[in-house]
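Researcher: Please translate sequence to structure tokens.
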Amino acid sequence: MNGRDGMRAADADREAVADRLRVALGEGRLDLHEYDERLQRAYAARTYAELDALLTDLPPVAPPERSTLASVTTPAAGPLDGAAGGQPVPAVAGGVTARWLAEVWLPYLKVIAIVVTIWAVTSLLSREVLYFWPAWVAGPWGAVLVVRTVTGLAGGEPRRRAIERQRRRQRKRVKRDRRRALRAGEPDERDDPRPAG
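Model: Translation complete:
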């Protein structure tokens, strides 16, 4: 290897590549598995060639006003859009986080309500307070959800979920518009001037 490719990379170079990979993860260009794999390879890289190989299929980072790539936000106001100009809300305010928390915790709360109701009805029918077995459902599951909530909030999962949701909606809208355009371009049998049969 000649020139720059064979030169030893510094810690600052590895950090710069790691930062670019984080941006690519946030943009949805990499999934978590691929991001983790590339990040490990970035910190293990010795030369510039090894670092450059991790970024070859990623576009360079350009300021939003000069970017020729599609932006994450759409012109129509969505959950990630600000009040004007389709700019994302910094840190995606409470609505996205509240929605994510509801997705995580509502199934738990519904199941706990059901098992506590079953316990209460059986206690009433037996005319004595029975052992509170719903704690065995609520305790472990609740502990897992607490850990998931803390790690999800720390890792920005509500924002990623909202971006994925918005992209899915946008893809569906594009498909629906394409279908409409195709249908509009097809001649209708009723419009055919030739007589049937």
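Researcher: Any highlights?
Model: Confidence is low (pLDDT under 50) at residues 67-93.
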